[in-house]
């Protein structure tokens, strides 16, 4: 039943339904708003990705333990 779900005539019917529902005058505005939303989403996800990369600590150098020597006794 769903074996041939994305044939060209199916996409044509979907496009016609969208045009009928929204009208040809509102389609450019809708596409423009969708594009703007996608740009905002892309920039926000990039900012989140950069923020998490910045928050991760860099590889810390290994610090060798030092020997602690007792100091002079207090009077």
From TrEMBL:
Q: Where is this region: Disordered?
A: 44-75
Q: Name one Pfam family in it.
A: TatA_B_E
Is the keyword Plastid in the record? no
The topology of this chain with respect to the membrane is: Single-pass membrane protein
What are the record keywords, sorted? Answer: Cell membrane, Membrane, Protein transport, Translocation, Transmembrane, Transmembrane helix, Transport
Q: Which GO terms describe its biological process?
A: protein transport by the Tat complex
- Keyword DNA-binding recorded: no
CC terms in the record's Gene Ontology section: TAT protein transport complex
Q: Where in the cell is it found?
A: Cell membrane
Q: Which domain of life is it from?
A: Bacteria
Q: Which GO terms describe its molecular function?
A: protein transmembrane transporter activity
Basic and acidic residues biased stretches? 44-58
Assembly and binders: The Tat system comprises two distinct complexes: a TatABC complex, containing multiple copies of TatA, TatB and TatC subunits, and a separate TatA complex, containing only TatA subunits. Substrates initially bind to the TatABC complex, which probably triggers association of the separate TatA complex to form the active translocon.
Q: Relate the protein's function as given in its record.
A: Part of the twin-arginine translocation (Tat) system that transports large folded proteins containing a characteristic twin-arginine motif in their signal peptide across membranes. TatA could form the protein-conducting channel of the Tat system.
**Protein family (similarity comment):** Belongs to the TatA/E family.
Protein name stated in the entry: Sec-independent protein translocase protein TatA
């Amino acid at each position: 039943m769903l074996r041939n779900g994305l044939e060209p005539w199916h996409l044509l019917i979907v496009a016609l339904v969208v045009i009928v529902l929204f009208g040809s005058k509102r389609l450019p505005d809708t596409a423009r708003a969708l594009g703007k939303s996608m740009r905002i989403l892309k920039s926000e996800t990039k900012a989140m990705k950069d923020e998490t990369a910045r928050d991760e600590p860099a590889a810390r150098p290994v610090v060798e333990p030092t020997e602690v020597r007792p100091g002079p006794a207090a009077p």
